[in-house]
Amino acid sequence: MASSVKFNTITSYISQGYAAIIGIVVLPFLFSALGSGAFGLIGFFTVTQIIINLLGAGFSPTLAREIAKEKNKFKNSYLISVTKSLELIFYFLFSLICLAAIFSSNWFANEWFESDMSVDSLSSVVCIIFIVCALRLQTVLYLSAIRGFEDFLWVNSVSIIINTLRFPVSLLLVLYYPSIKTYFIFHLVVAVIELLIMRYRIGKLLGIHFWLPNHFSWSNVKKLGTFAKAVAITAVISVVIAQADKVLMSGLLPLFEYGYFTVCIMLANGILMLGFPIGTVLIPRLTSLYANSQLDEFRHLYIKFTKFVCLFVVPVAVVIAGFSQNVIYLFTGSIEAAQWGKDILSYYTLGNAFLIVGGFQYYQQVAKGNLKYHVRYSTVLLVCTLPLIIIFANLYGAIAVAVIWFAFRLIAFIFWVPYIHKKMETIKYSQWLFQAVLPSLLVSCVAYIVFKINDANIIEDKMLLLVQLVVFYLLTLAVTFLSYKLSSKISYLKLGSR
């Protein structure tokens, strides 16, 4: 692994790890200060952000890929033109979202939520949520461009500062002024600051010394159309699949129960946060390696990063899923929330674990610039899962959609992942499975069963509970590490006997 890739990965994990840790630490205090109903609005904010980001789903990753390809080819005028053209499109989207916020907030307050808050207060909070999401959409474009330049040290350093404002500082604010409206007004201020900083940085990297939306080139935007369209289609479908249950639950559940549901989703998504830095670092480098026909290094990085995820991230998922009831209690202090959400958290966490490991096949497709298989897969998945989610969410509630989430992630891991490895022809599936995945998978299955048996009773001493969870994680990690060592030794002996 090139030293720059190691360095980028380390800085990304420091930044993402910091965000995950402070998010988890802040969670119980926010829940306590604001209550489960207001916390449900934070869940709505999270879902809204993901949905609004779909508006830029094709262009943001495409810009990152284009910069990763062209940044060393002295085509700065082309990159400036592409960036400024997309920036203008995003300005237009920002304006549309703000108008939608003004005209739709009253409808959400009156028709969508089941809450004790006054209609005026709820309406103003919803309006602020939409504006914050619009600002972050614009920021995502600049972040994608910066990542295309592989400027990870700078972006990760700034992210730590922004996340400090977003989590600990916002918590201090609501502890003194316990109002959900105050919370979101502060997030609005932070979103503006983040947008200005990111725009300044990408301007410096590209040598743009002006802010006005000029240099628009429709021909350059059209050049990106095929890949951007494929990315956008798959992103839209993926988000519909991933967020349909959250949207449905926000309307079906009372706001206090949706607060419990939000806690489960946030804890399960911690696994995705731990896996996210891998994609942001690996995709630009794999794209560059494939473009320069360095396939041996491509395969080496691919297996190395998969092992990393299976060794360090998967055991976290096993501990959260295995001790789901106690994990919820640890972060909420509510026995009612723990009993309500224990199975929901288990299914979502295990599904996310399979999603992270199985997601490596997607990195291959992006690096090669060929997303036709992913478009087909996403379309079939949407057709199969969306009707089931709608039907079973109404019949059986949150637990049903959690089971559906897990089942389809498992099916994709078993059948789709080997199929894509065969089609991409860059690395053998059997090599990837046996070297990088199987040792962790076997240990995780056994560990999950053991942990689930021990999760029957809630440990009310939170310090003792935290120590127990950390010890079980370290034990799982150690056994997984030994299993990789044993697997390597067996492979070595087999090669030596030939």
What would the average pLDDT be, to the nearest integer? 79
Beta-strand residue fraction: under 5%
* Coarse shape: globular
Number of strands: 0
Q: End-to-end distance, in Å?
A: 29 Å
Major β-sheet annotation: none
Q: What is the total number of structural domains?
A: 2
Structural class: mainly alpha
Number of helices: 17
Order of helices and strands: HHHHHHHHHHHHHHHHH
Question: In percent, how helical is the residue content?
Answer: over 70%
The rounded Rg comes to: 23 Å
Query: Ranges with pLDDT <50 over ≥5 residues?
Result: none
Polypeptide structure, described:
- The structure is a single chain.
- The chain folds into 2 domains: 1-216, no CATH class; 226-489, no CATH class.
- The protein is built from 17 helices and no strands.
- The chain has helices spanning 3-52, 59-70, 76-112, 119-148, 152-176, 180-206, 218-223, 225-252, 255-291, 295-322, 324-332, 335-358, 360-368, 372-396, 398-424, 429-453, 462-497.
- The radius of gyration is 23 Å and the shape is globular.
- α1 packs across α9, α11 (324-332) packs across α12 and α14 runs antiparallel to α15 (398-424).
- With 498 residues, the chain is mostly helical.
- The two termini are 29 Å apart.
